[in-house]
Amino acid sequence: MFQKAKNIDTAFKQVRLTALVVIIGSILICAYTIYQGHALVATTQQRVYVLSDGKVLQARASSRRENIPVEARDHVKTFHHWFFTLAPDDKVIREHISKALYLADGSAKRQYDNLEEKGYYAQMISGNVSQTIKVDSVQVNIENHPYAFRCYATQKLVRTTSIVTRRLITNGVLRNVSRSDNNPHGFLIERWQILENRDIQVKNRR
After folding, report:
1. Which of 74, 128, 158, 166 has the fewest Cβ atoms nearer than 10 Å?
2. How far, in Å, CA of 45 to CA of 60, rounded?
C-alpha cells in the first residue's frame, strides 16, 4: 500500500518536472523567436531598394550620426564653392551668392555686403575677372554641437594680364536645421569668418 503511494508520488514528481521543463523550454523558444523576428524586421527596414535603369539595387540605410562628418565637410565645401566661384557676370554672381546664403546665416551675408560695398563685384565685372576655388581640406569637430569647422582652400583669380593664386582659411560652426531642396545636408553655417585671404602667387599672362 505504502509502496504504491510512493510510486504514485514519484511518478507525479516526474510528470511535474517534465511539464516544468517543457514550459520553460517553450518560453525560451518563444522569446528567442520574438527576438530574432525583431532583429529581422530591423535589418529589413535598413535596406533601401533603388530602381536604376530597370535594375533593382540595394542600399543600406544609416543613421544621421554616422554621416555627420561626411555631410558636414560637403556642406562646407558646397558653401565655399558657391560663395567664391564667380564670373564677370552680375547674374552669375547673384545666382551663386544666393545659393551660398541658403547654407549660412547672417555672418555670410555680412561678408557679402562688405565686399559689395567695397566694389569687389563691380571690379570683377568691369575687369573681366573670373574666380574659382579649390577646397583643400575641411576639419570638423563633431564632439560638440554646434560643430566647429575650419576650411583650407586655394583661390584662383584669372585677370586679363595675370593669374593670382590666394590662400584662403575660414572657420565657423555648423548647426543642425531641417533639410530642404536648397539645403540638402540640413546644416547652417554660423559665425563664419575669413581668417586669411592672401596672395601666394602672381603669374603674368602672355
Report:
1. 128
2. 9
191 CB neighbour count, 10 Å cutoff: 14
194: cell is: 575669413
Q: Is the pLDDT of residue 2 over 50?
A: no
- What's the grid cell of residue 152? 583650407
pLDDT at 73 over 60: yes
- The residues with which 168 forms a beta bridge, in sequence order, are 153, 197
Q: In what order do the strands lie in the sheet with 147-158?
A: 130-141, 147-158, 162-176, 187-204
As a whole number of angstroms, the distance between CA 185 and CA 77 comes to: 12
Rounded CA separation 84/100 (Å)? 9
What is the model's pTM?
Answer: 0.69
Grid-cell match 563664419, residue found: 192
* Residues 41 and 70 both lie in one domain: no
Give the chain's domain count: 2
At 162, list the grid cell.
595675370
Q: Are strands 47-52 and 187-204 parallel, antiparallel or unpaired?
A: unpaired
Torsional class of 122: left (φ above 0), alpha (ψ -120 to 50), beta (otherwise) = alpha
> What is the residue range of 11's domain?
2-49
Residue 45 confidence (pLDDT) above 60:
no
| Separation between Cα atoms, residue 78 and residue 67, nearest integer Å | 16
Look at residue 54 and tell me if it is in a domain: no
